[in-house]
Amino acid sequence: MTQARPAGQHTVRRHNCALVLAAIADSPGRSRADVAASTGLTKATVSTLVDRLAGGGLITESGRQDRPGPGRRGTSLSLSPRGPHGLGVEIAVDYIATCLAGLTGEVRELRVRRADNRSLSTARVLGRAGKAVREALAEATARGIAVGGVGVAVPGLVEEPTGLLRVAPNLGWHDVDLPAELAARTELPAGPVLVGNEANFAALAQLWTSGPDGARDFVHVSGEIGIGAGIVIGGQLFSGTRGFGGELGHFPVSSRGPRCTCGARGCLETLAGQEAIAAKAGVAGLTELVAALSAGERPARSAVREAAGRLGTALSSVLNLLDVPCVVLGGSYARLHPWLAEPLLAALRARVTGAPWSPVTVTASALGSEAAVRGAASSAVRGIMADPDSFVAS
To answer: Which residues are in the HTH marR-type domain (predicted)?
Structure first.
């Protein structure tokens, strides 16, 4: 057994730096004395760390505090809107997206580049992703913004400990080391590269943008060409023991259904994914589908009702197993919410055993198809917040 060793000075500083930054993020406008009181650190230690964080561009000091009562007012501390940003990258089946997000949550730049990546080789798609990253980094430089970390969202199984993409069925990818592949195609910043499933990043974006009064227990369903689910319980993402959880699209819903890219038959995404609904409705894509639904065309509405029944069959199993009361429709499902929610809710009420005592709700994500890339960028930001001293020292 390895014997524990005492924390060195650098380790203590890293811990305390994160502690001070978190205190400022939780209550913007605090003074150094307030931070010392809330963290239990000495005023001298807080002053040294505040100077270090300010020198690294993570916080700003802006005038005297605005607070009631007598006594000397300290200098107000807050996160710097021009501090290090997270870069989010999403490699989807039919597009590549990038997003720059700051410490305070604002999105500086979000760009989507449309293409059917299934028709391209892995190298070609990675080349396009590398170009998108280079363009985003150039945009950050032009704005005078440092990038302190990168998050990469992909539609497949990602091993959380290693960041290795094991399989992305709809892209036909196997065992792709995305950090290494992107590093070979562009000069990545010194911070960490976080790789994760797009549905998980989308669920985190939903959680982080919904505010303190938002749902803390929900299943976020990313309905695109494939279907993924991000499961949040008690305000924490549940992704399984290795990160492979949430593959809702591969729930079997018909033993005689079409062959799926995963090799099985009758998977949910072959019958209720974006392309399956459009084909059933007799339209070319999502935009045309929404137009047909808005016009009240019967084939379109019938196709959505049928998809809602399939989706309800799969989701009811998830809700019965995990006792989660809320479904958030994301991706293309968010745009279909006006027509999809009612038949889906009816299916869930009929199948979820606890529904009479714990009502199920179905809501639409305000982030839609931007959720995954925003979640990837925000995850990179949170990596900076968790270890700001490493960014300052880089």
So the answer is: 17-65
Contacts of 223 (CB under 8 A, 6+ apart): 272, 273, 274, 329, 330, 331, 332, 333, 334, 336
Alpha-carbon distance values, 303 to 163, 283, 339, 343, 364 (Å):
37, 11, 10, 11, 19
How many whole angstroms separate alpha carbon 48 and alpha carbon 129? Answer: 41
The sign one gets for the Cα dihedral 118, 124, 125, 131 is negative
Please give the domain boundaries of the chain with CATH numbers for all domains: 9-79 (1.10.10.10), 85-201+372-393 (3.30.420.40), 209-368 (3.30.420.40)
DSSP letter at 126?
A: H
- C-beta separation of 169 from 156 below 8 A: yes
The alpha carbon torsion through 331, 221, 238, 196 (nearest 10 deg) reads -30
Q: How far apart are CA 315 and CA 219, in angstroms?
A: 9
323 conformational bin, left if phi > 0, alpha if psi -120 to 50, beta if neither: left
Strand partners, 327: 219, 362
Dump the DSSP string for 324-371.
--EEEEEEHHHHHHHHHHHHHHHHHHHH-TTTTTS--EEEE-SSGGGH
Taking only the tens place, the pLDDT of each residue in 175-234 is 999 999 999 999 998 888 999 999 999 999 999 998 767 789 999 999 889 999 999 999
User: Cα-flanking dihedrals φ and ψ of residue 331, to 5°?
Assistant: 60, -140
pTM of the model: 0.92
218-240 confidence digits (pLDDT tens): 999 998 899 999 999 999 999 99
